[in-house]
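Q:
My hope is that you can spare some time for a protein that puzzles me. I hope you can help me see how the letters and the tokens relate. Thank you; the sequence and its tokens follow:
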Amino acid sequence: MKIAIVGGGSIGLLLAAFFSEEGQDVTVCTRTAEQADAINAHGIKYQAAPDYSKIHRVSAARVDAYREVPHYAIICVKQHRLPEVCSVLQSSPIFRDSTLLFIQNGMGHVDTLRSLPQNNILVGIVEHGAQKENHHEVRHTGKGKIKIASFRGGIDKAFWGRMITGSFRIEGKDRLEFIMKEKLVVNSVINPLTSLFRVQNGDIEQNSFLTELAKLLFKETCSILGINETTDAWEHVLRVCRSTAENRSSMLIDVEEGRQTEIEAISGYLLKLAEGKGMDVPYTRFVYFGIKALERKK
């Protein structure tokens, strides 16, 4: 299969390495020519603890210079960059017959997908931890699952069922809303707390004070989303903290590097839902304004 990975961040590089390992024809569509040149020259260097690394020889091109016709286009850009990418997906004949898979945090982007003309659109969540070292190197900091569900059309179970290497396991799910809420709950706890306190994911469980703050955020998020059975959901948050214990969240890295974060897509989305329901959500409001203050500081 010919696969275009749109977005050269940590998850984009990680997925490009995974699909390459499975023998797929992979091209990474980047925002800059500099990154495309680096990937074409060096390949993607995949690193996993403690001392394993492998070079994956894949192609790369700037998004606006990509000319192949992929079977799958996997959209790994952050949510605030989706409008420009969706504009390309709407207008370019290259992607007209492609199956699209969107990998973003939050849930606010789902309504945006309704305007796309493609017949097959999937939405997925990635529970792996990954850290981008430079333009062409990615470090795998925590193993998890990749869960996908259909937004429009169907899931090719014969294709996705083959993606079962030791590091790369995909699960097809029937309930799109369930996997999106599950991911949003995790992001609403881990991303802002790790960013505000400058800690790794594992510290949320290991530091009892952070654990208490996490529980308060978790309960508030579940209330906003109407999740009643919370025991399994809380255990899932803790499992993600453990499996990605050494990972530094993407929001933390964005804060440290002075980039726009995804706080609008996560806590901002929750605040809008809560406002519509007349709910007072002080912990979500605090982390939202805390992250926005850090963005403004940079």
User: Anything to note?
Assistant: The mean pLDDT is 93. The first strand starts at residue 2 and ends at 6. DSSP finds eleven helices and 13 strands in the chain.
